[in-house]
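MOLECULE: protein
FOLLOWS: sequence and fold
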Amino acid sequence: MEQTASHLSSAPPVRLLMGIHCHQPYQNFSWVLEDACTKSYEPFLQTCLRYPDFRFALHYSGWLLQWIQTNRPAVFDLIGEMASRGQVEIFTGGFFEPILASIPHKDQVGQIEMLSSYIQSNFGQTPKGLWLTERIWDSSIVPAVVQAGVEYAIVDDYHFISAGFEPGALDGHYVTEEGGRCLKLFPISEKLRYTIPFKNPGQTIDHLLEHAREDGSSALTFFDDGEKFGVWPQTNEWVFGERRWLEEFIETVLDHPRVRLESFADYVSDQRPRGIAYLPVCSYYEMGAWTLPSRLASRFDEFYHRVKKEDEATATAFVKGSIWKNFLVKYPESNNIHKKMLRLASLPLGLEAREALYQGQCNDVMWHGVFGGLYLPNLRFNAYEALNRCERLAGRSGVFVGDFNCDGYPEVLARTQAYFASLSSREGAQLYELSCMRSLVNVLNTLTRRHEAYHHKLGKPAAGEVPETVEDADGIASIHDLVADEQMELPPLHYDWHQKYSFVDHFMAELPTDESFVAADLKEQGDFANQPFAVIHQNSGDVLLRRSGGLYRWAEKLAGITVEKRYQFLSQSVQVDVCVESDRDIETFYGCELNFHIPSGVEQSHIEIHGNRFPKDHTFTFNDVRDFCLEDGLFHTPLRVHACTAQRLLGFPVMTVSQSEAGYDATYQGTSFLWCRPLTLRAGERQKMSFLLSFGG
């Protein structure tokens, strides 16, 4: 039986608290930002402007606002106009969108205050609400957030369900505390995240009405990525094209007699919290799956969908992945950036250096899920550029030994006027950073090829899911449901068994070929490429490391081998002396592997060997090579590499296959070089090989 209008108007109302979050990684490509403005940010704001009663919250990361203010002032003015008439409530957050729990307390406060001040100056609002980056909750952030003037923040309903709350109780807000500092929390409705904007507006209305309370206090929160409205696949035509989803949604909500749009500020002043809540360290479900080690992630995905098929509520409440910080375990490259940031954050910093530090705290580069993240070389490039700018302003020269990466083993850091270098004693006494202080480029910024959980299902839907790849009458696919084109041309999948650092020591049973080098199948006999060295000696200009290991044929030990590596940090160059000693007569092949990241395209960069120039995506083998040169306009000066004796040199482009919002990407991560030669040692004999990396000369 149809309900009458009078019955609808007398039935209890339900509030919709709506928010949009927009962000782009620090220094992302201008064409990406232009595309996002054209496809999403501008048409969304223009549409909302025509409906003054459509009230919602808005969060833009600070760097994105700065870029829009300079490059798309009309979009910036749209925000200002709606802010001035009270249509939008602007939320604050970390200015450069850090994971707050991953940065020090003083930087948490500083980043939030920086964005709040910018909002106050440009839009005349003093923000009370906080957008929590990637909804990564850790109660340790509460004191800093409250100190920065925030009264309430946004998390997922998943956080509450993980803490034991019933889904039906998540229609308002709660209070949490840490050390007596109180913060109000709003749970985002997962159901609304998957209906807005992907399903017909009626489905959103139905869900809202299901949660109405007789006292009229019920409120459901939607706060999600603005890029869902036009940038994500299929959404531009759906939201703004002939389908005109956004207009229909706004009109449906405004016309419904029982649905009220309300600002978060008004709701907080009008309604008391539902109670107190203490939430576990977590984010949304997908993040917990992405941060697991890849082999476990595949099993986790299958297990979750098996449980969900039988009992969805049980799966949601009890089946969880890991925490965001596990990305720092899963990806050593992320940990290297993060710990470089923490070290710099501990130094006395002026205003310019602190802003550079804040820029280097941008979250996107430190993780990987459905978006490229760490796999995008430009994001790693930008992170190192910002942190190296901070290093240039605040660092000091010298050689320093300590556990800077917090992995239980000492790292060696060296700073001259020309460069900053970092080497890991845990990973084979290898260099993992060599940053030019003039160009601020880390020339060793190469990503290791590793197995990812989605590699086994390229072109297949997630376990238990039916892919939605085309628009129908009821909606379109969420980005989590889209399936990549099975016809995409992707490179073969190869995985590295050691980090793609530089000065990796290989002892091989036979002389390698370019095919075996590409496949990471070097017939390895030694245990030096991924094992720890001890720091033996250090002074102001050099450091000596040693490992006593061996050569093996399967389980049989062929010889005891000691490798010593002395790094001499000269003014413009790094000299590496490798000394090898055996306790038995041996014949093997020694290889020294180096990995360099050449950031520019093939038209703006090249590799030069024996007077021949060729692009970075070239696979090659040369004999009798004593030196080669890398040139890239972003280096500002050529990088020259020398060996003490002529050796065979192999090289190939390091390519990865990674998941992205568009499907799967084949991405150049660096170029791998292997200098190799026969090595014959008599018992007790030492042989020395020397290499030199130099900027310019």
